[in-house]
Amino acid sequence: MTNPESTRAADTSRSCRVMILSDAIPNRNGVGTYYHDLMEHLRDHLGHVEMIPARANCVFKKNRVWIPLPGDNSQHLYIPNVLPILRQVQEVKPDLLIAPTLGPFALLARWISMRHRIPLVFGYHTSLNKLASLYWHGHFGDLTSWYLKRSSRVMFRRASAVIVNTDAMHEEALELGAKNAHIMGTTIARPIVDTPVVPYGGEVRRILFAGRLAKEKRVHTLVDAAREHPELEFRIAGEGPLRCTLTKEGATCGNVELLGWLDRESLLQEIDRADLVVLPSQHESFGSIALEVMARERLMLVSNQCGILRWPSLADGLCVIGEHETVSDAIRRLRSQNPEELQTIARKAREATRDMNENTMRQWMDLFETIRQRVA
């Protein structure tokens, strides 16, 4: 017999209209990727879902006017083209707004939420304390840290819910004044889930890094490892402020290739060709690339600073760089293991990501239903 409560909840969800105003560029960084993939999955469950991405909806678009982020000129803040966005809001009449991260589009989402009494969900996915200590120092660093925390508190006061990826980010959000912070899992892009998996052979010969070429990612450790393992192939995919430095360093090794930024299809092909993907970050709030690699049944090697390790359901499918290990040491250790053992880890990884994908969708749908009931 059908549960009437479940039926009513499903009917309510099907009529829900969601709009995402995003300062993060889709598929360019972790936050942009997270909400782009989420949107694709939500379309199966909601009445309407659409994203207003920053770069495609900014003023002076033809002249490419933006504000570079201090410490990383490869990332930019775009100023919203307000009137067309407001017309789109009037047309869609969303029941709920999502602001994935801090920025001008998030502040616009907050204003629209207040003006039209639309519930707002705000994403808090990056540790402001650790970000500020990495990029900004002295008085400017103190001022930047104060501004970021102040802006977060402004968003928290309006948000019906705050989304974080780990318990550490949950604690930080609560300390800054978030009232309804929710630890949420991560969905996986449809092509990664739906494309048949190429079985992993148990070897460690081709090694990949994929992500922003930035200080906190410690990408240089891949070049160091390449020097110590000339028999292996190292490939580095991504763009960022360290691109020129890595190009020069990589040129001194005959086994390092920089691929530049890859679209989703090309990245999927690189993951499938790799035996091992490395994320040696000094700080990583979650590490979405790790989940994608695990879903493709490949070995994923992460530093002990990656937030994905805080999810017990995923831990058995991850390899971890030891506290006193270098990336090179960890690769050497994995190569010494039995291939069947490595294949078992990769299979566990794939199974765990499928479960997380399903659980995450249930979490989001439950959250939407709770918010709608609260404002009804």
User: What is the N-to-C order of secondary-structure elements (H for helix, E for strand)?
Assistant: HEHEEEHEHEHHEHEHEHEHEHEHEHEHH
Mean pLDDT: 87
User: Strand order, biggest sheet?
Assistant: 2-1-5-6-7-8
CATH topology of the largest domain: Rossmann fold
N- to C-terminal separation? 28 Å
- Note the beta-strand portion: 15-25%
Radius of gyration: 21 Å
Class of the largest domain in CATH? Alpha Beta
Structure at a glance:
The chain is of the alpha/beta class and 376 residues long. It has 15 helices and 14 strands. The protein is 47% helix and 16% strand.
Report what the structure shows.
By secondary structure, this protein is α/β, with parallel strands linked by helices. The chain contains 15 helices and 14 strands. It has a six-stranded parallel β-sheet with strand order 2-1-5-6-7-8, sandwiched between helices. Strands 11-10-9-12-13-14 form a six-stranded parallel β-sheet, sandwiched between helices. The chain has a two-stranded antiparallel sheet with strand order 3-4. Helix 12 packs across helix 15. The longest helix is centred in the C-terminal third of the chain and has 37 residues, at 339-375. It starts with a helix and ends with a helix.
